[in-house]
């Protein structure tokens, strides 16, 4: 398996350009393939360490401003 540095990747994929804040400007699309007999699993929420709470809140706010996440009110199930 060969590896590419950042320059090679952005040259071969012109839509994948680094942004000013070193985060991808376009997320693109993803596909998830699963087995037909796969069963969903419900897991408890994970606790965020107190020392990271503010950084996580700041990052979530950034993702909302960029339109990547949409805040919701209430349960999703």
TrEMBL record:
Which intervals of the chain are annotated as region Disordered?
Answer: 1-38
Polar residues compositional bias, start-end: 1-18
Would you tell me the protein name for this molecule?
Reverse transcriptase
- Provenance organism: Elysia crispata (lettuce slug)
């Amino acid at each position: 398996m060969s590896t590419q540095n950042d320059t090679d990747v952005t040259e071969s994929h012109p839509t994948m350009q680094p942004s000013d804040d070193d985060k991808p400007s376009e997320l693109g699309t993803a596909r998830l393939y699963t087995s037909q007999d796969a069963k969903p699993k419900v897991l408890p929420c994970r606790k965020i360490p107190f020392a990271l709470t503010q950084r996580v809140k700041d990052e979530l706010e950034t993702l909302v401003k960029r339109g990547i996440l949409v805040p919701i009110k209430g349960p999703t199930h």
